[in-house]
Amino acid sequence: MELWVGALNLGFLYAFMTMGVFFTFRIHDFPDITVDGSFTSGAAAVAVLIAAGVNPFLALGASFLVGAAAGSATALITTRFNINGLLAGILVMTGLYSINLHIMGRSNIPLLNQVTFISYLEKVNPRLPLEVWIFLTLCIVMAFFWLIIALFLKTDLGIAMRITGNNPIMAAASGVNVNTMKIFGVALANGLVGISGGLVAQYQGFADIGMGIGTIVIGLAAVIIGESILKTRSIYIKVFSVILGSVIFRFMIAGALYVGMNPIDLKLLTALFVLITLIASKVFAGKKILKPGFLKRAAGIFTSRKLPYGLAGILVAVVIALLVSQRFSSKLFAPAKVWKIGIVQFAMEPNVELCKHGILKALAENGYEDRKNIEIIYKNAQADFSMINSIIQDFIRRKVDIIVPLSTPCVQSAVQFTRGREDTKVVFTYIYDPYKIGAATSPTNHLPNMTGISCFPPVEKILDLIREMFPERKNIGIVWNSSESNSEAVLIKVREHAANTGFKIIEATAASPAEVLEASRSLAAKGAQVFLNGGDNTLNVSFSSFTKVAREHNIPVFSVDSELIEQGACVALGPDYYQTGYEGGRYLAQVLKGKDPKDLPIYQTRATLFYLNLDVAKRDGVTVAETIVKRANKVIDSSKRPSTRVQGTGKRLALFLFSDNYLLRECAKGVADELERSGTLRSHNITVDMKNAQNEFSLAQSIAQDIVRQQYDYIITISTPALQVMANANKIIPHIFGAVTDPYRMGVAKNSHDHLPNVTGVATFQPVATTIRVMRELFPDAKRIGIVWNPSEACSEACTYKARVAANNYNFELVEITVSSTGEVIDAVQTAISKKVDLFLTSGDNTVITALQSVAGVLKRHRIPYFTNTPMDVEVGSLVSIGADYAEVGKAIAQMAERVINGENPKNIPINDYVPEKMYVNRALAKEYGISLPDAFLKRATWVKR
Q1: Residue 464: how many CB atoms within 10 A of its CB?
Q2: Are 339 and 373 in contact (CB under 8 A)?
Q3: Residue 307 pLDDT
Q4: What is the predicted pLDDT for the residue at 10?
């Protein structure tokens, strides 16, 4: 319920912003991008005032004034200097970035321990769930807001403002000062946006300099959605449609999260949803979608004589660009040889993730780690068969050493494109039958460049189990994709065994995940009494549709994919996919060590898992015999207390990242590896769900609410924003954080022992002082250190503050250049060089890290030693890198989580200030610069690049 009510609440809070966008977009006829800045201005003003002790409701007045001032600036530029409104908005929005930083004084202000409007509502809460109480209160507020805006637009002033936007010439003829009215309208609009920012900051528990990015897109989408649904001339309904559009937009995001959609795809979903809404509204209105002659004119483009020349020019430009980029990237640095491994999967599935964890575990045990002595390139075909071929071809183009295809479609493509290529080796796993697709005719007779692990499911055993549990049921329904060889192989086995045991197999095909629902319904209509999932990839992607139909008809679902037991299957009996991946990883390690794939026979894994979901069984009216329950590796039964038997609790852990930053991924990998190594996940039967907000604050808020709605048993957050948004949304579920530079500034703790009762974790500050001390040790005569950093990043800000202190302690002058985007980094570095810096430092700044290789290249041309706080940076051009090993940090986070899982209360576990320092040294670069590094110094290094 928290997700849906939270979506309503966010919709109401963003409705103030949406109304502002409505004023500028619909009344004044331009999408005012100022809102991206004024939204943050409102949040910044509120946060600063609340932190200073000002009443939160009075602070909202300040947020309105700040936003209105920003809007006035845009309107003045437009009216007084005759600048295009969109351009004026861009100029003001750009300037607001700096102004907002000055208002806040830093990039992030936490409000977790401050008095906000939420605090007042908690005091008068009549014992309702807090989100419900907030919703009821906001309903009243929004009713007043709707009436006030609607009545205002019907006053003389409101009508004059509407006429000004609709027909400025007529308005001027009627005596209205058009420019003044436009200034008033845009100021009012951004004032409302400022209020929205102030409310959202209080609701989510912090204000951040980046929280306004993309606000204009959200506002425009909400306005268009609302007015497409409610088409009317009534001003009351128009105003209501704006609020409705804001709520629907948030519901769309919540719904996508609810069904498990990857947050990566939510932007695309937004665009498609708005497009469909617009098209549907035109269809319902009886309008033609395409103008007369559209197709004829479109065809004319391709018959134009100029087209070949244009296409040729584009082609030549693309080729030149590719050649230049390849030459630049290959000549700038010559890193040490590392093995390139390309892993391709068909879709995002729990079993595939288990398989990948097994692969990585086996590689690590054999001394191979990503970003150290191997480079792993992950690709996901997103359930698109045509995309698999492109991925395999891209791997070949990149000259990867080993391709690791996961699933039958991926292995099929690898067979097609690598047959006869001795330079490209293939080690497959997560495949049922490699013989059927032409990869081999027997375990020892296979393509010479290819080997791997097969995991054909125990079809006979699962059919015998159906017979044992339901001796009276004869009709088994199966949905499968006829283009999948693995699915066909399973079906052949099912047919053979069914013929011998008296089962009737009812089949339905689905060519795509979208067809699974109708295919499942056809099975039920034909009298299927049991549903069986034979491991079809297409079915797995849309397994919820399969179980939905089963639930509607009380049909038990059996699956050969054990991890689907959490998603509606009653019984799962199939391969252990972690073990399958582990065995594939051991084969991969042997090939890396020089073993020829042709000498490795294809191996069929024997490890299987038997899972039961008694909650689903009871819902379907199925009684499971105790003798069968005792045979299960895992039993889900919420009516009983958790069993001490292995794999008997069925708990869930949410691993929540804010973005795809490399260090965060490394940390998350460390968490996952340690939890697997310790056996905690298996002994407590915990499944891990990965969440990623893709660097978007509003999405992070929705993900946090979804985690609370689903009542996860444990939460691990990676990064500062993920910690902040989760700490605000969750007050009960045990929460362990990591990859956080300074949790004390974020408001979750006063010191290591005094922290939120359900929250503990690992704080990791970059070793800035150590790095600057080493700078002085190696360069006793150096005077100036250059540093480029982004003030909008809390971690970078904290590290820069530390650098200032350390530079002063070691008699350095710190030359600081600030940037707001990756595109500004190189210019900033050149500026620092022009100021005669002797050394250069990057610490904790994700914006600079994104352009690290280019930065290193510029510094190398000027022979300026480069120091960073990410050890692996020596591979791309840093001289010395001293930093935390984030895999070790992840391990420490996992160990703290294990304490909580084993029963310790988070409030009794102090925060661990942990910085596992490692120093990597690029001795080859030092020789090139003519720098002599002392032997004593080199002996202290964790690794030396020679």
Answers
A1: 14
A2: yes
A3: 47
A4: 85
- The span from the CA of 573 to the CA of 590, in Å, is 30
Local structure of residue 570 (DSSP, 8 states): S
- Three-state DSSP string of 595-658: CCHHHCCCEECCCEEEEEEHHHHHHCCCCCCHHHHHHCCEEECCCCCCCCCCCCCCEEEEEEEC
**275 phi and psi, to 5 degrees?**
-60, -45
SS3 787: strand
Cβ atoms of 447 and 453 closer than 8 Å: no
DSSP H helical ranges for 742-815: 768-778, 794-809
SS3 state of residue 556: coil
How far is CA 396 from each of CA 327, 370, 392, rounded to the nearest angstrom?
18, 20, 6
Which residues sit opposite 33 in a β-bridge?
Answer: none
Using DSSP's 3-state secondary structure scheme, residue 753 falls into coil
The reported pLDDT for the residue numbered 537 is 78
Spans in the chain with pLDDT lower than 70? 1-3, 112, 257-270, 273-274, 277-278, 280-337, 383-386, 640-650, 660-661, 823
Closest CA relative to residue 736, chosen from 909, 885, 888, 886: 909
What was the pLDDT predicted at 647? 37
* Per-residue pLDDT, 665: 82
How far apart are the two ends of the chain, measured CA to CA in Å? Answer: 58
Q: Which residues contact 805 (CB under 8 A, 6 or more apart)?
A: 769
Q: Is 212 left (phi over 0), alpha (psi -120 to 50) or beta?
A: alpha
* Four-CA torsion 306, 307, 309, 314, nearest 10 degrees: 140
Query: How far apart are the C-alpha atoms of 803 and 840, rounded to whole Å?
Result: 12
- Coil, helix or strand for 945? strand
How many Cα atoms are found within 13 Å in the side-chain-facing hemisphere of 383?
16
Q: Distance (Å, rounded) from C-alpha 878 to C-alpha 896?
A: 33
| Secondary element (H or E) of residue 759 | strand 759-763
Q: Would you list the DSSP string of 894-925?
A: HHHHHHHHTT--GGGS--EE---EEEEEEHHH
Residue 711 and residue 701: Cα distance in Å, rounded?
16
What integer pLDDT is reported at residue 477 of this predicted model? 94
- DSSP track, 257-306: HHTT--GGGHHHHHHHHHHHHHHHHHHHTT--SS-TTHHHHHHHHHH-TH
Phi/psi at 772 (5° precision): -70, -30
Reduced to 3 states, what is the DSSP secondary structure of residue 821? coil
318 alpha carbon, distance to own chain's centre: 30
Which residue intervals of 455-576 are DSSP H helices? 459-469, 485-501, 516-525, 537-541, 543-552
Count of CB atoms situated within 10 Å of the CB of 638: 10
Both tokens of 208, joined, read 């951040």
Tell me which residue of 694, 705, 659, 693 sits closest to 10, measured CA to CA. Answer: 705
Please give the DSSP secondary-structure letter assigned to residue 109.
E
Decide if 897 contacts 686 (C-beta within 8 A): no
Distance CA 100, CA 104 (A): 6
Q: Which of 323, 315, 145 has the alpha carbon at shortest distance from 246? A: 145
pLDDT of residue 906: 92
CA geometry: angle 426, 430, 436, nearest 5 deg = 75
Given a contact cutoff of 8 angstroms between Cβ atoms, the answer to whether 344 and 403 are in contact is yes
At residue 377, the 3 state secondary structure works out as: strand
**Which residue's structure tokens are 């009344």?**
27
Token pair recorded at residue 91: 């100029």
| Residue 739: closest CA among 882, 892, 900 | 892
Nearest to 841 by CA among 796, 809, 791: 796
Amino acid 283: pLDDT = 61
Please check whether residue 276 is in contact with residue 252, taking contact to mean a CB–CB distance below 8 angstroms: no
H or E element at residue 881? strand 880-884
- What pLDDT does 836 receive? 94
Which 3-state string (H, E, C) describes 254-266?
HHHHHCCCCHHHH
